[in-house]
Records
---
Amino acid sequence: MSTTESQYIDIYEKYSDTIFKNGVAVMNDCRQIAFDYFKDNGFPHSRAELYRHSKIKELFDFDYGLNLNRVKFPTSNNLFHCDVPINSYLCFLVDEAFYLPEKSKLEWDDLAKKGVLIGSIREMAQKYPDLVASYYHKAYGEKMDALVAFNTMFSQDGFFFYVPDGVVIDNPIQLICVSNANLPSISNPRNLVVVGDNAKASVLMCAHSLSNVESLSNTVTEVFVGENAHFDYYKLESTNAKSVSLSSFVLKQKGNSNVLINDMTLQNGFSRNNISVDLEGEGAELTLCGMVIGDSEQHTDNHTVVNHNVPNCVSKELFKYVLNDASKGAFSGRVFVAKDAQKTAAYQTNKNICVGKDAKMFTEPQLEIYADDVKCSHGASTGQMDETALFYLRSRGIPEAEAKMLLMFAFVNDVIENIRIDSLQDKIKLMVEKRFRGESSLCKGCNACK
Amino acid sequence: MLLKLKNCCKFRWRVVSDNNLEYRYMLSIKNLHASVNGKEILRGINLEINPGEVHAIMGPNGSGKSTLSSVLAGNPAFTVTEGEVLFNGKDLLALSPEARSCEGLFLSFQYPVEIPGVSMVNFMRAAVNEHRKYNGLPPMSASDFLKMMREKKEVVELDNKLANRSVNEGFSGGEKKRNEIFQMAVLEPKLSILDETDSGLDIDALRIVASGVNKLKSKDNASIVITHYQRLLDYIVPDFVHVLYKGKIVKSAGKELALELEERGYDWIKKELGENF
Amino acid sequence: MKNNFVNDVTDSDYKYGFVTDVETEVIPKGLNEDIVRLISEKKGEPDWLLEYRLKAFKHWTTLEMPEWAHLSIPPINYQDIYYYAAPKTKESPKSLDEVDPELIKTFNKLGIPLEEQKSLAGVAVDAVMDSVSVKTTYKENLAELGIIFCSFNEAVKNYPDLVRQYLGSVVPYTDNFFAALNAAVFSDGSFVYIPKGVRCPMELSTYFRINAANTGQFERTLIVADDDSYVSYLEGCTAPMRDENQLHAAIVELVVLDRAEIKYSTVQNWYPGDKEGKGGIYNFVTKRAICKGDHSKVSWTQVETGSAITWKYPSCILLGDNSVGEFYSVAVTNNYQQADTGTKMIHLGKNTKSHIVSKGISAGYSQNSYRGLVRVAKKADGARNFSQCDSLLLGDKCGAHTFPYMDINNDSAVVEHEATTSKISEDQIFYCNQRGISTEDAIGLIVNGYAKEVINKLPMEFAVEAQKLLQISLEGSVG
């Protein structure tokens, strides 16, 4: 074990009293297993296949602080509103602490009447320990990973959302995750979403950074979707160059459920998103898509795993990257079809355009198939903008820069069109267009996208 | 020696244009040479077009017809190696493709390009407003624009549904060509080049497209109709017919030439020119 | 019902599984520096080559067997292998009459046109049995054109400068575990040199056979195509049926200079082990070509039906501007066979092109993986690649996997990858049945149609053989 890990091992051992004292029982119960894993395995070493293009270990070499004493950083009032103005239930996760703005509290009462539990995972774990414990860290039994272990060891708070069976929530829950610390620090938000049988809900998660110092967020999100349930998860990252975002997202889908994940990276520093989906009941459908718009030296690495564990499930995956300047993109997608998962339909597409001379793209689509009656395909391409289309637009009088913008926009359009909330789709279109025009789409307290 | 001669030629043209002699032409092509991937396709084209005229350019496959239209529209895949083109007195070859469009040059593509994800409405609004900006006009209001779109669609009996789709995506051959003429109606060009607009059209679609073109004809605009067959010229009657062969215009005459070509093919012209042409 | 015919169709007997009764000379089992020296001594090699082997051996001892492939490889005891086995003959044979008649019978059984009278077939053959090159036909005819086609050993003796210049220049001994092992203990192989401007008038061919028990085969092939030359080269392989696994760790190096072209075809039919997965060859091969010259071209074609485990990635380094690399592959796995095969296309020069077509067919309990890398270096402007990787599954107990890697470091590159996985549809089989074709023949037809794009790239006479081989490795008797 190198010094990178040992500094965190030392902190954990030395301050475990503090961590446990500040933590809640349900979360504390999992810390030791995670610690044992981390102690044995450490971060993935620099040649690890799964992290070929994102050197995780080096990120943790930086001298970040861990907010073990739950010190509150000064927050300004303009933090608590967001103008991705869609009809949503709004809440915030600032660094690693959950906030519910005063003015949204009324709306939340409506939800509470339906039996929906929503709020800080700390509070919920204290109020409903059995419920939270029956899901917390359960998606990660055998699939432990260094980032998840690290989060489990240190995490103190996050977002909890429980939709009882049969409850339908039409408007999305909007979770704004902001890094606001004025010292270089690591946050470990821990989110848990449970959507009951026949229920319907959606979550929009916006990641922003208001701090101008280095920050690393190591988020873990566990999602359980019940039978016949319908769930949308949109993630929009619009942070800055100093931000490191590591995200582990795991989804368990029961029979006949329908889930959409759309992971959009508009602006960032260094991002690595691990998305893992288990289709565990027949008839489950998954749409997993994402887009990346990169410029300057942005680094975005999406790693997806879709496990078809049972027959008759459908997964459709689409990721698109537009890389400008010296930005770097990586996509690795593994589709696994288990031995008895007959009648599986799994489609994966990854298309990228490198616009910048120094842009780099690394693609690894992978199919691993152990059943014979399946329809599986994957396609990947990396190229440039279509020259004939560009000429066609220019021949109609549209200037080159504008024509390029139109084409880049058109390129990612089919990812945006997967958004199933119309007002959000319109908003994202606007933000993406602004992004391509070089206007900031950074939500500074979300004023930019008005 | 050769170099000097070339210089001298250029000099002479410049004198001519300085005397405003060229200005009476809408389009004047002088000794145009162009190549693609190092292979010379156009080997000295000369052509003059006045407002109100319709010129047909015919010729066997590979004679350079489509290259000529691409070069005039400024397709970057082609390199102009020699020659000069004046359009309304401006040096056309010095302009970007979009500036040529705004100057009033329109190319109806032989193979209209499919652009998934770009809706027809957004595409045309961008084009119209760029043209207006070029001419110092403010952008069109959304309602005016939609009204104009509705009017112009009637010119080519274009289905309402098509306008909501992505540019040319999933259009049939006929729909694509109608869409080209629809765009021509919207942009109101001074000079339109119809590159094999008849190819891939059945007789009904041909009639619709041709009548669209005829409705747009006026004394102030001109057209170049590039075609392989005489068929289209039954509907769009040319004032002049030129035969392009091996990168040069080898014969020019009135509309009767098209009929003669239809009857006799191109072989007699090849024979006339001899094997060493 | 369905499972039945699949089992039947995918069963087959290995028709090359006889043992030849030839007296064999072996050296003690195991691997250490003395063995390396002994091999070199047996060959009467010059000092520089011994040095090369020793360096490679030293490096090998520092390495561990790679584990990244999608294969489960039982531990191999490298000390339990004979690293040198040669059919015992008095002297190097000068003509066919001097070759052991048993050997000739073996090659006749294999259907190799070794004898002069088969010259009409137009194939010049270098046959490598166990580790030693037995006989090269047509050497004289080729010599008239200045073409060198001989065993590696002879090349070391007769053309030391050429060998020294190119040996290890494409696959250095540091490249990987098996490359280091081969460089230390390689026993023989083929050497080809095509001089400037010469188009080799016939297919050159090598047949490899492992005969002796417990033997590893470590041959090396080096082909150099000088400016404006062309050669088409073929290798075929068989081995007897034995219960224990045998190791084959070969190296093939191709060097292609300005405007030259090498077409390298393989029909690999090493013993795949029995129906329970017992025995069979471990085929761990490093094949690589470098397109050094501008406008040079390499084309790899492989039909892989044998071996218990295949680990093989014939690759192209496209260094010269406008150079072209191609890879066409059909890999069939049945019973408990495992294959992890594919290619690497490294685009370094400008306007380089590569084309990959891979067709995997899995049956029985086998695992069949495509693994490929397309890398476009920063300065490789105008690079183009297209990859098509299809998998066909026969039966529900096998696996088909695709692991392509695309590393693009240049904004003018266009790289495309497509992959599909499917099974033979019941509709297709029914359609054939309805027209009077048996299920077994229908599968043969469909599989051959599926693999056609690749088979067509093989030289005529081998295309026919490959087609038969495909059918054989999947056929049995429909009950």
---
Amino acid sequence: MIRSDIIKNLLPVIRDELVVCNIGLPSQELHMMDDQPTNFYMLGTMGLSSSIGLGLALSQKAKVISIDGDGSILTNLGTMPTIANNVADNFILFIVDNGSYGSTGDQPTYAGQKTSLAKVAEACGCENVVECQAEEAVDVMKAALASDKMTIIVCKCESGNIPVPVIEYDAPVIKYRFMEEVKRKNA
Amino acid sequence: MSVSNDIVQSLVRNKVEFVTTVPCKQLAGVIDIVENEPSIMHVPSNKEDEGMGLCAGAYMGGKRPCIIMQNTALGVTFNTLSSLTQFYNMPLPMIISYRGEIGEKVAIQVEMAKHTKALLDELKIQTYHFHEPEDIKDLDSILNHTYMSRKPTAILTDSNFWGGY
């Protein structure tokens, strides 16, 4: 299974939650398969999906899922101690770990070699860290949502991409409709 | 210490409820007060672009954010300021320790001070320079302006403003 298979399988579980989605192909795949105002698509700034998601989770009550990638976590590795030390039980960080920089041509990342992001998360102090295989993603996500505990999921999968269109929304439109959903969920 | 307190009081008056910081000697006092201010959620970040991501999330969660940081980090935040904060029209007051100006004791700090205003100008970020302690009087209106405009603004605070460190 590749990232787009995982996202497709997760759609019924995450479609009503606030989702902050990583730059590039993950956002484009989510946008193509199930465009929702509850999706915040990152059009730029590699590495900040987890930071945006944490800031959002700490600032309001609704559940927040950040869909991130192993390469993006490595770009912003400082995010892990910040997450661990600022617990938001409405926050789930879902890392699609395909061991490659998918959006730029599948160059290998260190997470696909010696580096374990699950162990990094644990070493940084994250308390609920689950490493799973792609086939287990839906069950693990359901359990994390039901637990009401901040959870870091490292989901291992194959690298590979499907053709997707670029996102044509203007960034402030993405932000505006997302913020309306945040307000609605907190009303 | 008094300008540190004045800054935090201005943040509180303007309902700033989410503050991220990356330390600087000049900012030690204000960071300490932010940490102990009950109306502010203080989330220290490890790097300034990470902090700007946190602030973007906090803003979308309905909180007024602010980042307190040192000018030497401006270079590493260029992409984030451009492709996140500016591209999505998000407000972000940046209270910046302006190291390397008159009164500086560490020569290396001058190197980034030379670039600070040029970098902000290149990003077309409205920039305010606090040189005298009484310049703090403008902070309320700068904060108000920032949230109105939904853009990042820079408040450069130099050694003279802080009265040394």
